[in-house]
Give the backbone structure.
Amino acid sequence: MKKWLISLCMLAAAWGAAAQDAAVRKIADMAVNDNRVMEHLDILCNRFGGRLIGSDAYDNAAEWTAHLLRKWGYEVELQEAGTVPVGFNRGPWFGRLLGENGMELHFATPSYTSGTHGVERGPVLIEPRTQEEFDRMKGALKGAWVLIGGLNSGWAIDRSARADARRQEIIERNAAIAAENREIALRNRRDGTSEPLKKSETEPALFYRQMVEAGVLGFIQASEVPIRALYDRTTVNDPESCFDNLPTVPDIKLDKNQYEVIYRMAQERRYFLLEFDIRNHFRMGPVKYHNVVATKRGSKYPDQYVLVSGHLDAYDVATGGVDCGTGVSVTLEAARMIAESGAAPKRTMVFCLFAGEEFGLLGAQAWVAAHTDELPRISNIFNRDGGPTPAVGITVPASLCDAYRKICLPVQELYPDYGFQVQALTPRKVPASFGGTDATVFATRGVPAVSLREGDVKGYNFSYGEIWHTERDTYTKSIPEYQRQAAAVTAIVSLGTANLDTVWPREEAYTAE
């Protein structure tokens, strides 16, 4: 009887290994002949567009991805991750200069900022920098566009109470400096001296509240190109924020080359008008946002986990094609390949599309807080959030290098030109704070968070900085060849991780400290 049981176990193990090998072969076939990663990305970018939490686009994308994952056989939940105080939907925007040098304007506005009241047209003034200047021009501000100083960083003008207090302090200090300078000028004239005047402090939109109350049409700031547009942190983060205290005037970030032309024209007091039509729309809140979480239960170790993730939200000045459409589409396609390969992973596989990464890793934090008990049993989280570059390697615990060389052999055979390599992991300290991706939320809790290494191995000249949070973050900035490779590699490597004889040993990922 004992020999029979041993033989049966050996046969079952052999059958299980053969079934897993067949699943990998099926994934390899789909990678070449039925790779749908770019189809997923096309729908994310060009059917839904930019996907900020609080927007219809985000909610629609969450419903669609959940629908796909259910269709592929996963247990799917839309897990509430938090709320934003109001919702925001971006419509089209247009602008032009009307006058002797008329031109179409190239600009953007941060999310959660005001639009215009239909088409609005008015003259242009340069912002006042002193109380005296403001008093002299306050009557002319009504119905005017105001050029403010500084260079756009992507953020909206700070409308918080703290910012108002800071601006008022600067105004008061500048008033004191102006009084001192009048005394210095009197002494210089009286005594024939040349004592230098003291410099006043400057800040963009120093008289923000006063100009809004005076009735300006909006504010215009210079921006590098491509234009970066983030969001109004006061609207999103202030506990008092609600539908009744939203921003009321547009915050325009204008191509600095056009800004300089307009600034010179305003300096010369030439007559011209700017015309804008900005359709930024709000919705009553609070508005819930959800993580999309799909689960495939493990056949042998259902209480041990391998996670694959990307963040579903994206800035809406473009369509979120790279950040993080390239992560979401790869996660989706890896999930589809695994489901349709017939694989029965030993460990539970969880595919997470996180919400609110762009607003501070909110969805990942919510998931970790809700799944504290599972964290010690997560083998690794494979998070993709670095653009449309291919997988060129993986770093794993030293004791598992041989196992991963076997796991990754089909990758090397499928993609010999990419030089995929397995390397041993050097343990590090558990990080004390979050970094720039959702994976770092897991890392601070001691969960291995090792993503596939990436690189532009074929020289497509991809620049992440060019598109990061800018108007160029579109579908066309993705690289189809790289995306297809990354989806297949993610499927093969994550499935192989779920089928290891052991979870990743934590002591080989992190030091005892």
About this structure: Residues 4-16 have pLDDT under 50 and may be disordered.
